[in-house]
Amino acid sequence: MTELTRQVVAIARPGLAWAVHFIAIYALISGACAARALFGYAFLLIAGGMATVICAGLCLWSVAAPPAGADLKGAAFWSGLIFAMAILANASALFFFQSCGG
Amino acid sequence: MSASDTKEAYSGARKGEDATFEDVWDTPKGVRRLSSVSHRVVGRRFIYTGFVFFLIAGVLALMVRTQLIVPGNTFLDLETYSQVFTMHGTLMMFLFAIPILEGFAVYLIPLMLGARDLIFPRLGQFGYYCYLFGGIIVLSSFLFDAAPDGGWFMYVPLSTQAYSPGLSADFWLIGITFAEIASVTAAVELITAILCARAPGMSLAKMPVFAWYILITAFMIAIGFPPLIIGSILLEAERLLGLPFFDPVLGGDPLLWQHLFWLFGHPEVYIIFLPAAGMVATMLPTFVGKPLFGYGFAVAAVVSMGFISFGLWAHHMFATGLPILSLSLFSAASTMVAVPTAIQVFCFIATLASGRPKLTTPMLFILGFLSIFVLGGLTGVMLASVPFNFQAHDSYFVVAHLHYVLIGGMVFPLIGAFYYWAPHFTGRMMSERLGRWVFGLMFVGFNTTFLLMHLTGLRGMPRRVATYAEGLGWDRLNMLSSIGSYILAAGIALFVFDFFRSRRHGPPAPRNPWGAGTLEWLYPPVAPGFNFHAIPHVESREPLWDQPHLLENEAHEVDGVMRGIRDGRRETLGCDPVSGAPLYVLRLPHPTWLPMIAAAGLAVLFGAMLASAYWLCAVGAAIALVALTLWAWEPSDSGVTRDAGMGYELPVNVVDRRSHMHVALVGTMLVLMALFASLIFGLLYLWNIRPESAETLSRPDILPAGFAVVLGLAVALFGQLTRRAAVSDRFIGATLLSLATAMSALLSVAALGISLLPIDPWDSALGATLWAIGGFVAFVLAVLAYWSLFNAARRVSRRVGPGQSMPDFNLATFAKGTGLMVAVSGAFFIVGAMGGVG
User: What is the value of pTM for the model shown?
Assistant: First the structure.
């Protein structure tokens, strides 16, 4: 893999991590809070927390260890930071709330 | 036979090796101009047609404002008012904003990237005619007194047969779906063009920032439009066939439509904004005289917006009773999107601060964009807050917000872009003096109209009301808003006048009139059909600034790759998607009528569907199929090499994962996967929120569902084996394996169909959705089978020779994706059969 390809991957990886995290959180909320009530809030919290740690970690990877080379290094760094913040913001509701109703 | 650079070894694809470069690229004259596939012609058509729709939609907006100018007005009756505001929104969002921006991208991207044309010129022509015919279908509803009146979002149940009898909603659903083909084809075309056809040396990091904006926008279209296409097809199926997707009595849900619509609708706002912001990021450095501040920040911000904008759709649905936790998730995502947006705005401000900006007309529009769009963004953050949204929902505050975002974020940069790139369209400069008047009228008119609407909304005036009672505190605000709209319209009218005036009386534009740094100004603005005699090596993001020798010589004398190739074919340079290193000579098609005929066939198909003339639908489909088959039935170009100059010995149309055909196929698979995912989303959504309905559903047959999974894997396997046989030039093996691929695809269709037989699609929404999934996958399988047979037929009839395995190479990727869809569908059916549905 070339230096530039690594940088492109480092830009895209946080976005993909955010997308996976968003889908996971949306699916968990839908599973717990819709009519079917597939599982309880505790499961939602644990699974959501795990997804958050893993996906935020993938984003911060681009921040803590940005790829070598000057071309798109800044883009990779900022992409990681923006998406890590977005993941934490999406997950925040799970931790501030106590149930589907608030 | 191995690749050869001798002309004798090159079979049948030459068009006349004695023709000059200018002859090869010449645009046909007279009526044959309609057959042109040049990006310059097609791009301009998109732009001009989009602007005509803008003017029509603008007149409709003036009718709305005239109706609301005083309380109790009777200028429009209630039904006409609903039609007028519905068509205003529909034309603006679907037929103006996206197509005109795509038109600019189609026109500018090859010029900026150092390509002689877009990679799929025929697809561009096909997309344009789909857009034109689709737009005509939507507009023709006025002639039949059947203009849609359900709002540009066509909410159900209002748009169902029970509440919208007649054809009004059908005109919208069929016409818009047809026109959307153009957006999706343009998206695939632009993704491929940006990744696969750049000048030597132009790595992704040296790409003009406009190309980044368009690349991300194109990916967003590829993923964002499918939910609406699926939603429209389901709604039309409910209206036409009575399938109960959205009928709560039979386990459907009207909110499913809103989910599918806004899954498209919110990213659409960013799809509109990003290209316009890309124009700003291109124009701004020119007038400041310095490169864009923070290229890396801007790229990160654009990528972030592209992703995060897909997580906001439900903030349009805050008042529909979603779980509180869901509201918080979407509120957080809606707030977070402000971060990358603000980063972009800071990049623009920092660029402004880095030099002494020249206050030209385009620059005024950029400043207007910054001030208006930032205000719109701030009210967007307000609306992301759930409690505030509950209060402001469906009020004129929202109308003010969306116009601040869309007019500020798109129309102001667009008019600035017209002033900036007008020399490309007319060869002349537009008037700076009139331009300042245009800007002044538009800025004052816009703010008078829409700033006050915030107050009107906060005072409680709801959207979409045809009139209002006197004395509610809305009278004067509405009067002033209407006056403002006339001032805004005067600005647009003056712009149109200036554009036509400049065509004859504007001063001739010199080469690079603004002193810009990007490659589209290398040649004098109006070149007769062609872009680059030789494609120059690029060393920076602003080559015309950093490589002064490019402007020191006449444009046609600039040194570069591909000057000397003389096969009499239209060609450009194919590159590595990341590094931009030259990889191959990319053969391009010449003018042809076939895409237009295919689009006309589809127009007959869609139009006849409106008229319930189903035999005519079949005729239209047959015309389109024949045209598309002839389109693809051409000699292969791969298998030879050419000396491209500057030390490059390049193959023609390389058979490789990095080839333009393969990249386009991956883009197409992305669209198909998004369509499939939309259906799966619908299935899971209905299953989750209507468990009582799921319990009463008949179950799919498990055995054929299991066979379908196996056959799906067989489809992927045979496709892969065909690729291997073709690449190693095993003629008979590849032909037989193509037939096996087609056979397994047809058997998969049968297995999926038999599995679903116990389920009556008219009985429940869930059953109808299962059938919709089966129908969609069957359609993709039918395409795969047709393609496999087509490849086999071409091989048997000697249309392809040794070393020309690109169609089979690409089919393998398509087969893998299709096999995955079959396997996933089969797995869902098995879960349903085992009781998981209930």
Answer: 0.95
